[in-house]
């Protein structure tokens, strides 16, 4: 890199774009919808882009207008949203770089280091939920832009009021739109203090100026707090601290201090330590592991080469170089101790796993400033510092790649889940509660998956009354699903929608890949092996008569949302056979079995229950040898199938026509499986 190139204003933003693309864009073509993006897509399809103004009325009214703008442009294009997801992150990175560049124009190298660390911050694992977090990054960019504008105004002098007004407007919109970055606003007096250092060397004069400039911002903060706490409280998180007496104040802060220290430790130190945790690579697969190792090596090498050349160019410009880095460390530490107040006051946990890692977004700026400042004061040669930084960046990019691969695998499972459900239940009667347990999805909850269920089975329903509710027992047993008994009313709000139903209209289902989706029939599956612990009680609620097997309007599965229909595999034939079994179409069920086994699938223990409709179908068709063979294969696959196989053969004995072959087959199976009559 030439000295002229290094001084071009777009060089660092372009490098940050490359870094964002490598970190978050490599697996974009294979990523899908997750978590809160599912409701967003459903709202868009049902209400249109303008509907978001009503959707967000309950908690973040201003955010609805931003969603209206972005969804009008991007629609429901999965690929476009994932591209926009990392582009919006890049915009926040550029805003961060520009802000601290205004603050420390005499420290271009440290500013670049901090921008690199901010760009690949490894404590946030939800980058690949693009609709939700692209908007958060836009707000974060606006917050940082507001901070940068006040610094620029203080240093510009003559145009101060223009920059000041722009900064105030940006701060007001961002704080009223999203409360996540409220803590950064508390940092503004420190930023103003640092910005005024050259113009106001006397500390008392500087303090007066800080107070004077900060007053309008504190008015905005006060108005926001009054609006949020009194006029428009959010259902997302209420202030949990009690300040009605001095004793309570002391007690609350006594509990708060360890929480603050824990969260700062997790977001600043543990997040980086985890980038070097590679013990799970043995489960990653050979090709992904090789890709991970190659990516880390290339990124680390590229960053080191770039920063070494950049350092050489900066060193030649001695008037811009300084080694005094304590102000960056001070601002970083201050940011760490202010960032978490929206979460500390509401006692929302900050963890390094889904979904609680989302709160680390507020800590990114403080962490990046702190480590860049520390790196600046370490008494070693600059080349060693750059080498260390390159290793950190490479490891963090590798972490993002591994995380993206987790999302890729989950998207494959999600698509399988919804397609199998559509195959098994072509339509479900409105007002049905779908109850499950032990969801195999890491990045989606029952609340979020309610949206695609409604999208599938009620695509035209735009009324405020929702047709379906998807419920995970573990997640709701302490809230509205207080017992697993029939007749329990369920009334659940869903932003501008609501669901009213009852456990008397429920279907219980279970999915544990590589097993198939199972819609449970209490008459068939009560002794199913390896079922979740709650299912012994939940099974009685399952009513498969709520399935419409031949609907005029079957489940709608647009490829832009659910992907193209998979090839008809083992699970397809199982779902169709199980539906045929429910309808008593034994010929079709047996035919599905022939097609399933013709695929010569690699079966696992968990696939054994899929044999049941084939066993029963062949028995009803008097194919006794085939029914016996399938029973023995299922038992060999999973010895815990004994009890359910006994139930199946006892049911066969009651529901098939008596004959000598029937009697022999039943006696053989009852003897082999040691069934009790």
Q: Could you explain the architecture of this structure?
A:
Among the domains are: 3-30 and 77-401, no CATH class; 569-677, Tetratricopeptide repeat domain (Serine Threonine Protein Phosphatase 5, Tetratricopeptide repeat, Alpha Horseshoe), CATH 1.25.40.10. Helix content is 60%, strand content 5%. With 677 residues, the protein is mainly α. The strands form three sheets. Strands 3-2-6-7 form a four-stranded mixed beta sheet. Strands 1-8 form a two-stranded antiparallel ribbon. A two-stranded antiparallel sheet has the order 4-5.
SSE layout:
Elements: H1 3-6, H2 11-24, H3 37-47, H4 52-55, H5 61-74, H6 78-103, H7 108-119, H8 130-156, H9 160-177, H10 182-185, H11 188-195, H12 203-231, H13 246-273, H14 286-315, H15 326-339, H16 341-344, H17 364-377, H18 382-424, E1 427-428, E2 432-436, H19 446-457, E3 468-472, H20 473-476, E4 489-494, E5 497-502, E6 506-510, E7 518-519, H21 522-525, H22 535-538, E8 547-548, H23 559-562, H24 570-583, H25 586-598, H26 612-620, H27 624-637, H28 642-655, H29 660-672
Parallel strand pairs: 2-3, 2-6
Antiparallel strand pairs: 1-8, 4-5, 6-7
Helix pairs in contact: 2-6, 2-7, 2-18, 3-19, 6-7, 6-8, 7-17, 8-9, 8-11, 9-12, 11-12, 14-18, 15-17, 18-24, 24-25, 24-26, 25-26, 26-27, 26-28, 27-29, 28-29
The gross shape turns out to be: elongated
Strand content: under 5%
- Mean pLDDT over all positions: 91
- For the record, give the distance between the C-alpha atoms at the N and C termini, rounded to a whole number: 84 Å
Structural class from helices and strands? Answer: mainly alpha
State the helical fraction. Answer: 55-70%
Counting DSSP H or I runs of 4 or more residues, the number of helices is: 29
Strands of the biggest beta sheet: in what spatial order? 3-2-6-7
- Kindly provide the radius of gyration, computed on alpha-carbon positions and rounded to a whole number of angstroms: 30 Å
List low-pLDDT spans.
1-6, 318-323
Report the biggest beta sheet as strand number plus sense, adding barrel if it closes.
4 strands, mixed
Can you count the beta strands? Answer: 8
Which oligomeric form is depicted? single chain
């Amino acid at each position: 890199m030439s000295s002229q190139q290094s001084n071009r204003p777009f060089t660092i933003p372009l490098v940050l774009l490359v870094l964002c693309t490598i970190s978050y864009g490599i697996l974009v073509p294979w990523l899908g919808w997750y978590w809160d993006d599912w409701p967003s897509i459903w709202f868009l399809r049902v209400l249109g882009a303008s509907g978001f103004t009503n959707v967000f009325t309950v908690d973040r009214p201003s955010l609805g207008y931003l969603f209206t703008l972005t969804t009008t442009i991007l629609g429901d294009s999965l690929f476009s949203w994932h591209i926009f997801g990392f582009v919006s992150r890049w915009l926040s990175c550029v805003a961060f770089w520009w802000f601290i560049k205004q603050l420390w124009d005499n420290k271009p190298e440290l500013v670049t280091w901090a921008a690199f660390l901010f760009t690949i911050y490894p404590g946030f694992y939800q980058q690949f939920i693009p609709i939700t977090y692209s908007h958060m990054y836009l707000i974060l960019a606006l917050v940082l832009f507001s901070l940068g504008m006040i610094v620029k105004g203080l240093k510009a002098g003559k145009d101060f009021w223009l920059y000041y007004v722009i900064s105030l407007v940006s701060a007001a919109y961002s704080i009223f739109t999203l409360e996540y970055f409220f803590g950064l606003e508390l940092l503004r007096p420190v930023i103003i203090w640092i910005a005024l250092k050259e113009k106001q060397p006397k500390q008392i004069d500087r303090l007066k100026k800080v107070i004077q400039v900060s007053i309008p911002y504190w008015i905005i903060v006060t108005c926001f707090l009054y609006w949020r706490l009194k006029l428009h409280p959010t259902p997302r998180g209420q202030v949990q601290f009690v300040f009605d007496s001095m004793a309570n104040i002391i007690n609350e802060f006594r509990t708060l201090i360890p929480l603050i220290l824990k969260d700062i430790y997790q977001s600043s130190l543990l997040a980086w330590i985890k980038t070097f945790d590679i013990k799970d690579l043995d489960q990653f697969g050979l090709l992904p592991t090789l890709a991970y190792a190659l990516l880390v090596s290339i990124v680390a090498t590229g960053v080191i080469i770039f920063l070494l050349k950049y350092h050489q160019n900066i060193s030649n410009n001695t008037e811009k170089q300084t080694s005094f880095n304590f102000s960056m460390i001070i601002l970083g530490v201050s940011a760490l101790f202010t960032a978490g107040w929206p979460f500390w006051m509401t006692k929302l946990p900050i963890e390094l796993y889904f979904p609680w890692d989302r709160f680390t977004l507020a800590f990114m700026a403080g962490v990046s400033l702190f480590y860049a400042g520390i790196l600046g004061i370490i008494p070693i040669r600059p080349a060693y510092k750059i080498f260390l930084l390159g290793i950190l960046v490479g490891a963090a990019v590798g972490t993002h790649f591994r995380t993206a691969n987790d999302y890729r695998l989950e998207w494959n499972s999600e698509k399988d889940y919804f397609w199998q459900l559509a195959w098994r239940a072509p339509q479900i009667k409105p007002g049905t509660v779908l109850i499950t347990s032990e969801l195999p999805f890491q990045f989606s909850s029952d609340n979020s998956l309610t949206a695609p269920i409604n999208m599938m089975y009620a695509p035209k329903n735009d009324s405020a009354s929702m047709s379906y509710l998807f419920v995970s027992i573990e997640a709701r047993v302490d809230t509205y699903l207080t017992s697993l008994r029939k007749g329990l009313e369920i009334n659940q709000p869903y932003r501008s929608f609501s669901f009213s139903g009852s456990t008397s209209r429920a279907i219980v289902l279970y999915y544990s890949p590589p097993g198939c989706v199972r819609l449970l029939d209490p008459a068939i599956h009560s002794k199913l092996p390896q079922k979740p612990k709650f299912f012994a009680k939940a099974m009685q609620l399952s009513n498969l008569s709520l399935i419409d097997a031949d609907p005029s309007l079957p489940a709608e599965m647009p490829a832009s949302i659910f992907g193209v229909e998979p090839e008809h595999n083992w699970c397809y034939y199982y779902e169709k056979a199980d539906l045929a079994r429910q309808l008593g179409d034994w010929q079709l069920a047996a035919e599905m079995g022939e097609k399933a086994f013709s695929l010569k699938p690699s079966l696992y223990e968990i696939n054994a229950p899929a044999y049941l409709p084939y066993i029963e179908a062949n028995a009803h068709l008097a194919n006794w040898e085939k029914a016996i063979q399938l029973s023995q294969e299922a038992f060999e696959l999973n010895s815990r199938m004994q009890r359910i196989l006994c139930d199946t053969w006892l049911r066969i004995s009651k529901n098939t026509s008596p004959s000598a072959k029937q009697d022999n087959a039943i006696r053989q199976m009852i003897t082999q499986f040691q069934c009790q009559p």
